[in-house]
Amino acid sequence: MQTSFISATVLLILITDPLGNIPLFISALKQVKPERRKKVVYRECLIAFLVLLTFMFFGRNFLDVMHLTDQSMQVAGGVILFLIALKMIFPSEGGSVFGSDKMHGEPFIVPIAIPLIAGPSAMATVLLMSTREPSRMLEWIGALTICMLVTTVVFLFSGRLQKLLGEQAITALERLMGLVLTAISIEMLLGGVASYIRQFH
């Protein structure tokens, strides 16, 4: 499956799911003073960006060290995206992926940068993109940059967006994103299987 710059950007935005993460993000910042929140948003988004960029640049080395093939990574990425998509469509009770909504003090790296933004699915996706087509690294960096800018803007205006859209609209958008992500994950999974089978023909 040939991935375009636009589809890669959309995929990363769907995976990081900034709109769906608004309630969790607001909960994480409850103990933070309002005047500090902008700085926290910028810091956490920058950390997440650097983490994903590291996975993007050193993904090939990681696969070589672990003796993993591109096909196995593609299938694994498809499975992870499928599970994430299912959680977006059918969220568990409580809705928090961290096990608890109670945050104490100012969050640093965990849980906002990791795993809220740079979660396992986002790490697997950027690693997969860079290892499959390393010649297009500039495009992947651009797609990741746009994704992080969108996430930053959404988090900066999270309070207003929650009031404007309401809980039901945000939930509906997350379900829709989950549905699209399900189709993408199946396509990725089938592409990995097909590529693996072609090796024996």
TrEMBL record:
Domain of life: Bacteria
Keyword Acetylation (UniProt): no
Record field: transmembrane: 6-29, 41-59, 71-90, 110-131, 137-157, 178-197
Gene Ontology cellular-component terms listed: plasma membrane
Keyword annotations from UniProtKB, A to Z: Cell membrane, Membrane, Transmembrane, Transmembrane helix
A Pfam family this chain is assigned to: MarC
Membrane topology of the entry: Multi-pass membrane protein
Localization of this protein: Cell membrane
NCBIfam families recorded: NAAT family transporter
Entry's family note: Belongs to the UPF0056 (MarC) family.
Xref: PANTHER family: UPF0056 INNER MEMBRANE PROTEIN YHGN, UPF0056 MEMBRANE PROTEIN YHCE
Name the record gives this protein: UPF0056 membrane protein
Taxonomic placement: Bacteria, Pseudomonadati, Pseudomonadota, Betaproteobacteria, Neisseriales
